[in-house]
Amino acid sequence: MTTTPYGLSIAAPGACGRSGVCASFRRMKRRTASDSPALFDLAPASPDFSMELEARQRGLWPVAGTDEAGRGPLAGPVVAAAVILDPDNIPDGLDDSKKLTKAKREVLFTKIVETSIVSVASSGPVLIDRINILRASLDAMRRAVQGLELAPRLVLADGRDQPPGMSCEAKAVIKGDARSLSIAAASIIAKVTRDRMMERAGTVHTVYGFELHAGYGTPVHLRAIEAHGACSLHRMSFRPLRQDAAEADVA
User: 178 is in which domain, residue-wise?
Assistant: First the structure.
């Protein structure tokens, strides 16, 4: 029997039975704790109201959640929402909007609007192209929070960045729509609002199929751009539109 630099006992060749490598490894595994607990600090299975209640205990109330929808598409605005939930009347079923069906989002949208304080803001393609999508998204989140009829004492913002220029304390929450009910509610409001805007855009700019793909770079959308060129809703700083514009300037 020999011992490796990692503390694993290995039986001699041919001697590995029940008391060989596998058994020794199992013994080591039982007595060795992980030295990287942060790697396993995963988001909960569904969002809850714990961050909001902790803030309330610290005297930070009300709490607003904010999130955006539409950072990735080639066309259309990025839409942000801010929501202050009523802790005594939180709609059942709130979750990250991406995990919900369209029908479920529509039902929850109505319930959130009926029971909560809600504000929506957007940044269009011109602003996105001028200041970039991240800054345009954060600016929409800031304006959504400012539009709330009740000023929050704390804002929980989905993602790694806090919206700049906040008039109250703010906290960036990675995977926030899967951790905070307030952010989850904001994600639903933003998603449904943007989808409705793009459905309306599809009736105006009929050749692109915006009502089908909401501006994302699907094959149908890319073929339409190739056939008809870009319209006023397209983000010219996004590839392949940026590449096409640069090639047109050279030509």
Answer: 50-200
